[in-house]
Amino acid sequence: MKIACVGGGPAGLYFAISMKLRDPAHEVEVFERNAPGVTFGWGVVFSDQTVENISRNDPVSAKTITDELAHWDDIDVHIHGATITSGGHGFIGIGRKRLLQILQDRARELGVVLHFEAECDPADQRWKNYDLVIASDGLNSRFRNAKPEAFGVDTDIRKNKFIWLGTSKAFEAFTFAFEETEHGWIWAHAYRFAPDCSTFIVECSEETWRAFGFDRIEQSETIAICEQLFAKYLDGHSLMSNAAHLRGSAAWLNFPRIKCERWASGNVILLGDAAHTAHFSIGSGTKLALEDAIKLAEVLNRPGLSLEAALDEYQAERNLEVLKLQNSARNSTEWFETLDRYLHFEPLQFAYSLLTRSQRISHENLRLRDREWLETVERWFWKRATNGKSNKTAPPMFAPLKLREMQVENRITVSPMAMYSAVDGTPNDFHLVHLGERALGGAGLVFTEMTCVSPEARISPGCTGMWNEEHVAAWKKIVDFCHANSKAKICLQLGHSGAKGSTKLGWEGNDVPLEHGSWPVMSASDVPWSPVNQAPTPMTRADMDAVRDQFVAATRMAIVCGFDMVELHAAHGYLLSSFVTPLQNKRTDEYGGSLENRLRYPLEVFAAMRAAWPKDRPMSVRISANDWAGEDGITPGDAVLIGEAFAREGADLIDVSAGQTWADQQPVYGRMFQTPFSDRIRNEGRLATMAVGNIYEPDHANSILAAGRADLVALARPHLVDPMWTLRAAAQLDYRDIYIPPQYLNGMSQLARNLKREAEAAAALRV
Ligand SMILES: Cc1cc2nc3c(=O)[nH]c(=O)nc-3n(C[C@H](O)[C@H](O)[C@H](O)COP(=O)(O)OP(=O)(O)OC[C@H]3O[C@@H](n4cnc5c(N)ncnc54)[C@H](O)[C@@H]3O)c2cc1C
Ligand SMILES: Cc1cc2nc3c(=O)[nH]c(=O)nc-3n(C[C@H](O)[C@H](O)[C@H](O)COP(=O)(O)O)c2cc1C
Residue 641 forms beta bridges with which residues? Predict the structure, then answer.
């Protein structure tokens, strides 16, 4: 094949090498606009995995690269005058200039023709003479941008400003240095890539950037200011630019996140940064470029594979890898963009939050990297959780939490789950066993399902209720059982179904209207849940009074039952949520329109319940923090205001769910997918929150809690199949101080022994 690689960065050069290695008969030329040795940038970071991949692909260039790699283990985080050092991170890096030299030499050795100072124009007719033109021309790719529709280019320009500088100061650790200035916070990411050279990236928000006047001054002045700001880290070394030709503010960049729907069009194939980018803060750009190159060369040389099939496989496999990294990169980018949210953390927690920002590194990963450091974090967490009384070194999920006078033994809760098994609202033996079993299973707090305040408030005929004496007696039996046999606290979730009411049992069809015995439904407005559901009657003020009083009556009954806590369900499109979300609330009176108006009735109900509920017992509210409808619905930003409004009425905890507020929602699912909303409400609103949604491993819970993304962690579906989730986690993590019902003691100690033996056997196998 006759191939032109446009761009002699890591992607183009390594692809040329990889093609020649597989078949020396290929004619490969690389066209690079710069002269050899002229390049932007300083050092690049690799992972061990990338080194393994390039060693398998070309042991010769890999040996030269690995011989010259700089290694470092520690990360130093400088914040608020403190330095937090954690170890075991194992980075490797090399100078970009040196990497390109090695790749150029190897390419020449294999017969690749290199053209330097060769600016390529996509409109040039000569590209027709090549079987393939590889667009390895970087993130501003002219070849990709010449046909944006053909490639389906999606660019997201990120908010912060950054400048890529270098210094002769050799940083011993990967260094994050955060400095507060009169113009706002500014920070550096610095790492050594050669014995006498480090990358030094300076980043700040656009407001800070403008306040410093970086938009108006020359690069040399920018550098002088940065040298002053970071003088204490530079030890007299200066900062340098290798893009000195750029005038004014041009050296400062906003990171463009690039995705492409299609990676090939005609004879042009995108490779490396031309096809995709991942924010520099997770250091994966060069890794992706090299791994793309290996994969593309491999499929193009596989006997019997058509060009079309080869390109399909190349894109499918690489895109998956790219999407995973872009996901982590987005978390990391957003962390730096919302830095203000975390600046009130103590330095240790700030560092933990920084290290776990991409969600690729978890609590247990940190334990493997630096056990001692992680234990310092755990001790700090326990000390804070107990007002300085405990010096325990143990996973955060087992630490207590006090809300008013209620103390939960640990941070795991059983999330509310409708069981559709009551008759006329009365919970029965099923509920006693179901909730009792989960209390025995070790969770600190057990929520009842949404319990309805009147017969018409039910979702289905099987929903539990709290409107008569029979209900009080049945609930009291359950509460008494939990209190007598476990340490779990129990919270009653009270709700009203609104437009989603009068539907079948969950397993007969979610939100499907009843065929027989239906009842009329009401809501904020006359918007039906879906075309097949009843059109609700908009609530009159008299309806509002009646329903508010039903909530209050149910709250009073909860006192008689002995519930430790009450939650108002204002999420998921049910009655109170139908007031909050603009997708369902079309009212024109003082209960519709602005968020303040839409919150008026839900807040009124909450305040009335709070007045009836004992002062020493906590109350929470469940909200949908995102309607998954963009700006047309509730956004995570609105959710902070909603949380704050309920907190002003006396909510002690915001239970942060999302969605289910309109039938055509477009949620973005994934591990811990709703936790970012909890994080935002907790740290922007400074409120106690509970995170929920696809949290299923103890490691998730510990990472969320230690990073300050929530105060409690709720699990629903994992508890359906494993009522003993918390006890099992305690056995796994070898935590002995948890309350174990005496009847179950033998089982727990056997489980702990077996898990320990298995872990030791697995460790021995690894050695
Ligand atoms: C601040 C910052 C920090 C980074 N840190 C890291 C890191 O730590 N680790 C990491 O792995 N990656 C890092 N990257 C990303 C990394 O630089 C790129 O992802 C990687 O170099 C991609 O390789 P590439 O070959 O696709 O593109 P590039 O390296 O951009 O190469 C493209 C080449 O094409 C040439 N070219 C462009 N247009 C033309 C044209 N029309 N004609 C001829 N030649 C042309 C350019 O001169 C360039 O040499 C960082 C990036 C930035 C901005
Ligand atoms: C069977 C089932 C019933 C549910 N019923 C309720 C409910 O009554 N009230 C409520 O607020 N959430 C309810 N939910 C939502 C859960 O509390 C939880 O927010 C959701 O399942 C996400 O958590 P998970 O990923 O741990 O399952 C229910 C979920 C399930 C699976």
Answer: none
Tokens of 240: 């340098």
> Which of 412, 413, 414, 417 to mutate for ligand 2's pocket (most ligand atoms within 8 Å of CB)?
417
Catalytic residue among 574, 591, 601, 735: 574
pLDDT at 171 (0 to 100): 94
SS (H, E, C) 144-171: HHCCHHHHCEEEEEEEEEEEEEEECCCC
3-state secondary structure 617-685: CCEEEEEECCCCCHHHCCCHHHHHHHHHHHHHCCCCEEEEECCCCCCCCCCCCCCCCCHHHHHHHHHHH
Ligand index nearest the alpha carbon of residue 50: 1
Over the chain, what is the mean pLDDT? Answer: 95
CA angle 46, 58, 327 (to 5 degrees): 35
Mean local confidence (pLDDT), 195-206: 94
Does residue 243 register a pLDDT over 80?
no
pLDDT digits (tens, 9 = 90+) for 384-407: 999 999 999 999 999 999 999 999
Instruction: Indicate the angle between helix axes 469-485 and 541-561, nearest 10 degrees.
Output: 40
The residue whose C-alpha atom lies closest to atom 51 belonging to ligand 1 is 280
Do the beta carbons of residue 259 and residue 319 sit within 8 Å? no
420 is catalytic: no
Task: Look at residue 767 and tell me whether its pLDDT is greater than 70.
Answer: no
Helix axes 636-648, 675-685, angle to 10 degrees: 50
Q: Residue 255 in 3-state DSSP?
A: strand
User: Ligand 2 centre from 717 Cα, in Å?
Assistant: 7
- What pLDDT is stored for residue 40 in this prediction? 64
pLDDT of 470: 98
CA dist., res. 692 & res. 673, Å (int): 8
Distance CA 286, CA 259 (A): 16
Closest CA to 689 of 666, 733, 658: 658
Using the mean position of ligand 2's atoms as its centre, give its distance from the Cα of residue 73 in Å: 42
CA 122 to ligand 1: nearest atom: 41
Q: Which residues pair with 153 in a beta bridge?
A: 260
CA distances for 410 relative to 379, 390, 491, 602, angstroms: 15, 14, 15, 30
pTM over 0.85: yes
User: Which ligand has the shortest distance to the CA of 718?
Assistant: 2
Measured in Å, residue 588 CA sits from the centre of ligand 1 at 55
Strands 70-72 and 91-95: antiparallel
Q: What is the rounded CA–CA span in Å between residue 509 and residue 523?
A: 21
In percent, the amount of the chain with pLDDT more than 90 equals 89
For ligand 1, whether the C-beta of 416 sits within 6 Å is: no
pLDDT in tens, 422-464: 999 999 999 999 999 999 999 999 999 999 999 999 999 999 9
Sign of CA dihedral 657, 661, 663, 668: negative
Q: Do the bridges between strand 268-270 and strand 264-265 make them parallel or antiparallel, or are there none, so unpaired?
A: antiparallel
Q: Which ligand ends up closest to the CA of 5? A: 1
Instruction: Say how far apart CA 141 and CA 251 lie, in whole Å.
Output: 18
Residue 136 in contact with ligand 1 by CB distance below 6 A: yes
